[in-house]
Design a protein that fits this description.
- 22% of the residues lie in helices and 39% in strands.
- The chain has 2 domains: 68 residues, 2,3-Dihydroxybiphenyl 1,2-Dioxygenase, domain 1, CATH 3.10.180; 58 residues, 2,3-Dihydroxybiphenyl 1,2-Dioxygenase, domain 1 (Roll), CATH 3.10.180.10.
- A hairpin with a 2-residue loop joins strand 2 and strand 3.
- The strands form 2 sheets. Strands 5, 6, 7, 8 and 9 form a 5-stranded mixed beta sheet that branches.
- The chain contains 3 helices and 9 strands.
- The chain is an alpha+beta fold and 129 residues long.
Length: 129
Amino acid sequence: MSGAHLSAVALVVPDYEPAIRFFVDVMGFALAEDIPMGPKRWVTVCPPGGGAQLVLARAEGAEQQAAIGAQAGGRVFLFLETDDITRDRRRMEAAGVRFEEPIRDETYGKVCVWRDPFGNRWDLIERKR
């Protein structure tokens, strides 16, 4: 698989618009694509520093609805790196993002867990340099 890379991860959300508003307006991601596909849309957002895109996938049916916020069985699901965890945590908290813990030191750097409005657990990480 020479040259392969992870380009996107699907995130099951209740609906497109609230997810777009959160990731673009609150988190500062760029809306990369919003393509109508009949009853569905292909919606992708990119973090400001690059990396894999999120495909915002609207839940269809009871099984997918049940997966909203639980795609990783309660574990941290996504990892967002920053160059200044304190600055970004303050900005996120001011925008209403809920953190589960204070910033803690780990061998790889500083980290704290937060949840998006859909219940997904994320790590905000500032790696040691």
